[in-house]
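Pilot study result, target chain (472 residues):
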Amino acid sequence: MLFNSYPFLILVIITFLIYYCPLFKNQQVMVLIAASVVFYGYGQPYYLILLIFSATINAIASYLVRYSRTQSRRKASAIAGVVLNLAILLFFKYNHLLDGIVSPSHDFFYFMVTLPLPIGISFYTFQGISLVVDTYNPNDTYDIKIEKRFSLHFKNTFFFKVFFPQLIAGPIVKAHQFFPQICRKYFKDINVSLVFKSLVVGYFLKSVIADNLKDQTYWIAYPYFEFQSSVILVTMLFGFSMQIFADFAGYSLIAIGVAALFGYNLPENFNFPYISASVTEFWRRWHISLSSWLKEYLYFSLGGNRKGNLRTYLNLIIVMFLGGLWHGAALNYGIWGLWHGAGLMTERVLTRRTNLEKGETRIPLLAIRMFLVFVFVSLGWLLFKLTSMRYALDYLLAIFKNISVPHNYALLLKIAIYSCPVVLYHIIYLIKIGKIELYNAVVRHDHVIYSIMIVLIIVNGGIPGEFIYFQF
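Predicted structure:
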């Protein structure tokens, strides 16, 4: 069920009315669970069984971690929970690698390896792992409440896993962020401003920007790019950078807005990533819930930066490579992860020998660094858009070869028009952090900006398409 569809709008309205109805004041969690089951089952009802199975594993593992009497049993339960989560993810996400090995004559096994990818499995699996690990390793800032009655704990765990605003494509919510929020919610406590702004900006980014840009960046695909001019090729790559940001940031903002409608706070997932002056900063601003998850549960577990420089570089490469494969079992995703891992490693080497990260504030140098990081990130997006490393290399070669090919000016104009709001979105943020007086004028007239966005959502939304991160 797409966020930008009428069935979703109807589901949210009906759920909202029931959720805050006094008759259901003590059943709010069950109301949201029912809505989440409808939301997920609308597209893949048979995978509800897998979702329930995954929630059961995490409920049992976390319960045993908390209430086992010996440390050895607690540790064994935690390890078993993490391993089973990863086993489910590996099988269903990478089962197609066995296609061609398993014979069609083996009916059951052939059926299993040819199953389509369950939507959202990468996201809800990582959330399940966070529940087990957070329960095993409580700290001073959080200690997850695990209900003594297993039935209540299972309900909370299932709710945590299926909460529909973030079920399909995040943000990835950690257990210690979500469990403390499970309580009765009141209509009067709704953060109306957060809901309104998140939904308007989110739908604007998705419907007006991403859904229109997808029709222009379509020509990046092989073999169409071979017949485009160098200027068009560069412009389309720029446009896809704008599109993937608008698409995923739009989804995250809609998820945050809908969750806030029901009294739940989801973590920020994007923080103006294209103003980053380093690759490290980019990963603090892009898909924040994934990068923080990888850092907290994988990078630190490998030793982080505590075991010398060489080990730190290796850890960065491993984490980013696995982060790339998290997006899919294809070589291009692994290479994309290595691309960013190499960028982080190179940057770390340079910072040890230069003043790259020591408070450089000169605007021209910052602008150059922002530009270089944007180019680096955009080149990496080729591995997302094109399914083959060979096609990505051919695309780069075509940029240098097709200089004399005539330009498609209509395509140039459309990409420029639909990319402009994303550029302005980041510029306004730069004005804000630069404490430039112009920002106050923008804030005073933000009602005009939101009105324009609402009108454009209504009259100029593109043909609705699936969110890019649904495939992950």
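One observation from the pilot: The longest helix spans residues 230-261. A full batch analysis is planned for the follow-on phase.
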